[in-house]
Amino acid sequence: MEKKVFLCRKSDVPGESVIQVCPKEVDDGLAVYQVDGKFYVTEDLCTHGMVALSGGDLQGTTIYCPLHGGAFDICSGDAVEKPCTTPLKTYRVVVEGDEIFGLID
């Protein structure tokens, strides 16, 4: 069952960028993205290189891993650039006022 977990405020995530958040309800960090005014949340750990994706380059809805240059679609979690092949876990986002929540299972 999903639970609603507070992640950050909208103002914490600059437009066209990504930040790392570490809510106590989650074992590992999460990446919160803002693209064209919409927010997305994925796991922050690259499934290939075991490095934080929040340190990577966000181009549109594609996040590039800072270690090996592989990439993921932040909407679906799909690996879109090798050497990454395993998809990222994505989370549904709820925005209430200035607060961003993730629905975490």
Automatic annotation (TrEMBL):
GO terms, molecular function: 2 iron, 2 sulfur cluster binding; metal ion binding
Domain Rieske: 5-102
Pfam family, one: Rieske
Alphabetized UniProt keyword annotations: 2Fe-2S, Iron, Iron-sulfur, Metal-binding
Keyword Nucleus applies: no
Coiled-coil stretches noted in the UniProt entry, renumbered to this chain: none
Protein's recorded name: Ferredoxin CarAc
